[in-house]
């Protein structure tokens, strides 16, 4: 079955230098972008599918999932589906990047159930990933391997990405234990409006300290993280045919209109359109790097 990722982007200062070069596989695509960048170019991105971005030629990109938090400098990253990301390039010049888009189901098949896929991962250096990334980039330009061979390389890059991330990330054992309790509390109280103060109290922290530690450990703000969990729960209810108004109640939104706004901001689609596309399996073209 064909797979067509949809990336909603609002960007400024990026000019494509050539057509994007793509490789397509079962529930996965690989895109090689080459663009000209003006100084301080940036944009907002959101995709309904998980994706990996590898910045080529030793360059780095400033990324954040929370505009109130300091951006992180990264050479490569993993972004869960439905998560808004803001990016910025400080210097002008040519920029190339390799993007892997795939369905959540395919990603889970590759990584297994023990890999946390609900939070973003930003890596400041590509390290050992550079070799695999270079092979895949060359394959988009001048294919010389079989499709099956290239697909296995992409799978290996994903597995190695998370292994590399684990070796680079400092332990957060105490915080992770506290945040596990937070996750359990959110799952048990989906129908409630959950405040950051409530979560900070649950974790025995001040609001300021909780925000700081949570962002450091999870890569996003507590509010956005709660919204991600609520939207994920809403998707399951929508797939089961639960009416919109009941989904809004079950996920703690003020009303259906509020739910619709948040859902569209998170996924790029209104709930009704999202359901139709889930049913049809066609999610449209990749709209990444479309300037506005």
Molecular structure report:
The chain starts with 6 loop residues before the first strand and ends in a 12-residue tail after the last helix. 35% of the residues are buried. The protein is α+β, with helices and mostly antiparallel strands and 292 residues long. The chain folds into two domains: 7-168, Jelly Rolls; 173-280, Homeodomain-like (Arc Repressor Mutant, subunit A), CATH 1.10.10.60. The chain has helices at 104-111, 129-141, 147-168, 173-188, 196-202, 207-218, 222-239, 244-250, 256-267, 271-280, and strands spanning 7-16, 21-25, 28-47, 51-55, 61-64, 72-74, 76-79, 85-89, 93-102, 121-123. The protein is globular, with a radius of gyration of 19 Å. Residues 180-277 form the HTH araC/xylS-type domain.
Main attributes of the structure:
292 residues, alpha+beta, Jelly Rolls, Arc Repressor Mutant, subunit A, 2 domains, ten-stranded antiparallel β-sheet, disordered C terminus, DNA-binding transcription factor activity, DNA-binding
The largest sheet, given as strand count, sense and whether it forms a barrel, is: 10 strands, antiparallel
Count of beta strands = 10
Radius of gyration: 19 Å
Which fold name is given in CATH as the topology of the largest domain? Answer: Jelly Rolls
CATH superfamily of the largest domain: Jelly Rolls
CATH class of the largest domain: Mainly Beta
In terms of DSSP E residues, the strand content is: 15-25%
**What is the straight-line distance between the termini?**
32 Å
Discrete helix count: 10
Structural class: alpha+beta
Tally of domains = 2
Mean pLDDT: 85
Helix content: 40-55%
Q: Write the element-wise H/E pattern from the N-terminal end onward.
A: EEEEEEEEEHEHHHHHHHHH
Low-confidence stretches: 281-292
Q: Would you identify the CATH architecture of the largest domain?
A: Sandwich
* Global geometry: globular
